[in-house]
Amino acid sequence: MPSLIALVDCNNFYVSCERVFRPDLIGRPVAVLSNNDGCIVARSQEVKDLGIKMGVPVFQVQHLINRHKIELFSSNYTLYADMSARVMTILEEFTPSLEVYSIDEAFLDLTGVCRNDPIAYGQRIRKAVFRSTGIPVCVGMGPTKTLAKLANFAAKKWKKTGGVLDLSDPIRREKLMRIVPVKEVWGIGSRIAARLNQLGIITAWDLAGQPADRIRDQFNVTVARTVMELNGISCLELEEIAPDKKQIVCSRSFSRRLTEYRELSEAMAEFCSRAAEKLRSQQSVSGHISVFIRTNPFNPNEPQYQRAAGVTLASATQDTRVIVGTANRLLRELFRAGYRYQKCGVQLSQIQPAAIPEQMDLFDLAAFGHAESGKLMQTVDRINYRFPKGIAVATAGFDQSWKARAERISRHYTTNWRELVSVRCT
Fold this sequence. Notes:
A hairpin with a 2-residue loop joins strand 5 and strand 6. The protein is an alpha+beta fold. Helix 4 (77-91) crosses helix 5 (118-133), helix 10 (212-218) runs antiparallel to helix 11 (221-230) and helix 12 runs antiparallel to helix 13. The strands form three sheets. It has a five-stranded mixed beta sheet. Strands 9-12-10-11 form a four-stranded antiparallel beta sheet, covered by helices on one side. It has three domains: 5-166, Alpha-Beta Plaits; 170-230, DNA polymerase, domain 1; 248-396, DNA polymerase, Y-family, little finger domain (Dna Ligase, domain 1). It contains 15 helices and twelve strands.
């Protein structure tokens, strides 16, 4: 039986989440901002039509924001995560196998599910998600994940598709790939696309016509697999269980410039606490910790400073105390007075499952307290889960004025009893 993979992708997801509870914004230009309200990270179609690019700093397009009365929102990740979970729950009803690829995307295995009319089945998915959540989606289908991605790209770009496109037919597949630039193919980044263009490979069809062995020798095995996937040969399986992260990074830009070590240390302690929580949530330990600090690289009028340092631990850990202590020792070595710091962060690497035994250092006394440390960290996690607002004081001190701004954040419509939408009938 021919395989059929679908990619369901939410349209302008962050903006769509805001519009669900603010229907007056439908048809108006809306943008969602990054942490600290610095850059635009999500745009409605109306904003895209104004030529505003993804990731552009707000101050650079303030004149367009004022002229066209663009509605701005701070990122409300609690709302977005909850709405994402609702969308994924609906999608699970349409497939025996689902891979949550990102907060707004999921792959569905529809092999044998909708043999008679895949397009009609895709429309059913779109209507069910919109009816239950208010989030518009597009559906791309094909015999491989790469072709499903390509079909979804076309379903979003061309309205005549009705938001659903199936590339199982080789003739339709060729017709599309001949007009799609190779840079739009899933897994082909800008650098690889530039190299492909130099070789005369301009479109997705040009790439599909290349021998996979030749592409592997000139690039890598990942690009070779992409060639095979474009030709309908599946090389990428659905991952129903998300793999553990190999690196965990936690960093933020500050709402104001920091000049004192104490303030940077408090911020670093909170980032380490968040990273350690993520590490424990996937039952892993980390063997390497690195930190970085930097000033604002976009301000040429101020002296610039950027440094990073890392250390390999004697024994892998998930203990917040060890991670915070190690990060602060590294921070003390990096810190230089006289600079106005804009950002700092921590990265945990050499991550492995906590259940895998490792060679212990006979002289590392801390390694013999892992059992007690694990129980303590479990207790800390339970407390923080029950009282989420208490962790800031417990881990990072009392002064939180450095935290990123979120001056335009919307209400937590689905996760906070006090902020639920109220409907009054008269």
